[in-house]
Amino acid sequence: MQQPPPQDSDSGAQADRFNQARTAKAMTLLEDYTEMIDDLVQAHGEARITEIAHLMGVTHPTAAKAVARLKREGLAVSRPYRGVFLTEAGSAMAASVRARHRIVVDVLLALGVPAEAAETDAEGMEHHVSEATLAAFEAFLRRKDQSAP
Amino acid sequence: MQQPPPQDSDSGAQADRFNQARTAKAMTLLEDYTEMIDDLVQAHGEARITEIAHLMGVTHPTAAKAVARLKREGLAVSRPYRGVFLTEAGSAMAASVRARHRIVVDVLLALGVPAEAAETDAEGMEHHVSEATLAAFEAFLRRKDQSAP
DNA sequence: TCGCAAATGAAGCCTAGGCTACACTTTTGT
DNA sequence: ACAAAAGTGTAGCCTAGGCTTCATTTGCGA
Predict the structure, then answer these.
(1) A65: nt with nearest C1' to CA
(2) CA torsion angle for A26, A27, A33, A38 (degrees, to 10)?
(3) Nearest residue to C11, CA vs C1'?
(4) CB pair distance less than 8 Å for B121 and A129
(5) Strand D: which bases are under 7 Å from protein Cβ?
(6) CA(B15)–C1'(D18) in Å?
(7) Minimal Cα distance from A22: which residue of B?
(8) d(CA B101, CA B120)
(9) Rounded Cα gap, residues A25 and A128, in angstroms
(10) How many angstroms away from the CA of B33 is the closest CA of chain A?
């Protein structure tokens, strides 16, 4: 799932990178909404469309469309005029997204990025952090903690 | 250009971050293509649609549409059935994009990310690296160089 | 309890960025 | 010199993800 088959020439490697970036970009909506819904359910017991929309900075029809997509993908469930909830798959995604987000922010902070910028940039960067990179980030943070306990 | 006006409540901060991530996402196409065209012009004296498409991993009509957008935005010029070239604005963007890309890759490598993953992830992450974060990255790399010359 | 405000849903429009199919130049090899 | 091949352009279709507008449902307060 990480190395697609090598192409004809060397230019394939370059193309593969862009294709992976495009794939990651397509996942961002799913990831952002599942995390948001998980937050809201933990905070209020349910996630309402209007609140999701407000926090995401979009209009409610946009949020509703996103939730419809989550439902299509089996990540969320909801009944008309009722709150939205995550399925098990959705919760799992939310958990890993949140963990990854925290690690990315921590790495940025450790590198000396100002807190506000770290939060903002992490929001976009996190979706492009592969397993390999995430593992390296975790190892880096562990080293940091050891050297400065 | 970095801090939009504060919203009503605190939820505005969250929404602002997502909005910035969306803006950055919208810039990725422009940035990727200008850098690619710059590479090709430096290598071959011109950038051909077919080669751009091949390297970007898309079909040529898609590349042609992207180039049309670059022209609309004043970043590139071209005449029918001839190569594509960057304007001064396009060259400037390519230069800063390339510089940022190199820094992001270097930071990932310095953190212990494997080379292949660093290249791939940087391709997506770089577009979300703000000026503040970039500055912190550069400072971090300078420190690294000093401690291990 | 019942009426109105707030929340949700539904429909339709727009742009970006993919694609295929087909038409037309340009280039190239014989 | 010209025909085939390669490269470009054009048209049209699709999905995602924004938006506005309008209809419907909830639920709360008078």
Answers:
(1) D17
(2) 180
(3) A61
(4) yes
(5) 6-12, 16-21, 25-27
(6) 15
(7) B124
(8) 11
(9) 8
(10) 11
Low-confidence ranges of chain A (pLDDT < 70): 1-11, 149
Query: In this structure, what token pair is assigned to residue B62?
Result: 């898609």
- From the CA of B60, how many Å to the C1' of D12? 16
What residue ranges define each of the domains in chain A, with the CATH number in brackets? 11-147 (1.10.10.10)
Q: How far is A52 from chain B (nearest CA, A)?
A: 10
Q: Give the closest-approach CA distance of B114 to chain A in angstroms.
A: 7
Strand partners, B85: B77
> Which residues from B are below 8 Å from A127, CB to CB?
124
Burial class of residue A22 (count of CB atoms within 10 Å of its CB; 0-12, 13-18, 19+): middle
Residue A24 carries which side chain, given as an amino acid letter?
A: A
- The CB-based long-range contact list for A61-65 (8 Å cut-off, 24+ gap) reads A63/A33
pLDDT tens, residue order, chain B (149 aa): 333 333 344 668 899 999 999 999 999 999 999 999 999 999 999 999 999 999 999 999 999 999 999 999 999 999 999 999 999 999 999 999 999 999 999 999 999 999 999 999 999 999 999 999 999 999 999 999 888 76
pLDDT at position A102, please? Answer: 98
Angle at B14 between CA B13 and CA B17, to 5 degrees: 90
* pLDDT given for residue B12 in this prediction: 80
